[in-house]
User: What shape does this take?
Amino acid sequence: MKLNRLPLFLLPVILGGVYLTTTSSSGGVSTFASGCFCHGSSSSATTVIVSSPVTGYTNNQIINFTVTVSNASRPAAGFNLETNIGTIISGGAGTQIFGGNEITHTSPKAMVSGTATWTFQWQAPASGNGTLTLNLSGNAVNLANGSAGDLWNTGNTLNIPFSTALDVANPTPLHFAQSDNGVLVSWLYDSKDLIQEYRLQRSTDGKHFETIFVQEVDQTTSTDLQFEDIQKSTSNFVYYRLETLDQEGKKNLSAAQMFRLNTENPIQLYPTLIDQNRIYFNGLSNEQHQLVLIDMLGNIVYQHQIQNGVNPLPEINKGHYAAIIRTSNQIIYRTFIQVQ
Assistant: This one.
């Protein structure tokens, strides 16, 4: 019987989640000549993220992306990702490309510290200025015969605009802390940047953003700016970004940064912009916790046991990293940090 692959955006919504057509295999993830099918039960215990260091593209530009699937209780994982424009031109080991706009795994990939990663390259179209949208699903599997016990989830929807619409050369990093009323968002203002206005924007899906705070600045403005977002979200994840307007009227859009809400036992990691070899944690329970840092190519560069208060960090190359806090059996916190 011929099996046809359904694009991610056409999969029907059932029981509050995305239903993924499934067929069992001994590896827990099915792979056929016509494509790859994720299966099992939808679960928030599986975290699925696609990331890139860029926030805009130009025609014919080649951009590197990383897909990360995390689950502390499953030994292997797979994924499926689609793009709406441009061409996926190459994938890393363990991937296969369909039609230039879809990429998936070839077989379940073993987790390392509860995380599996893949990389691929995308090339922008030669003409046009549409926004690139990446849709993603991932599956954490138990490597048993059949789909029982596998835990899939949809990932973030990543949108990257054409770069002539906004100047994305100098994104402003944001810092987060969970407060009693919501999320405290802060950033640094430098008068040398010649900014005249900040617009803080929020999203619950990483795709649709709304402006929630406007701050006009001048030479007398404090260098430390912050806003407490007290609106409660129905999602466990909230995305924030800054749009700035300089004195010449040029707009600059920062990369979207994700913050995970935890109302029962809020965990704080700070600073998210690291210029010294130390990092702080609050809200950790009495369990043993481990910090895992993953670079934008999907490589684990650091993992170590952590505790509340100050924790030393080794010398790490400058750049952006996914930061994961996990216990012995689950991932409890995930965010992004930047090392300067």
Observations:
- The radius of gyration is 20 Å.
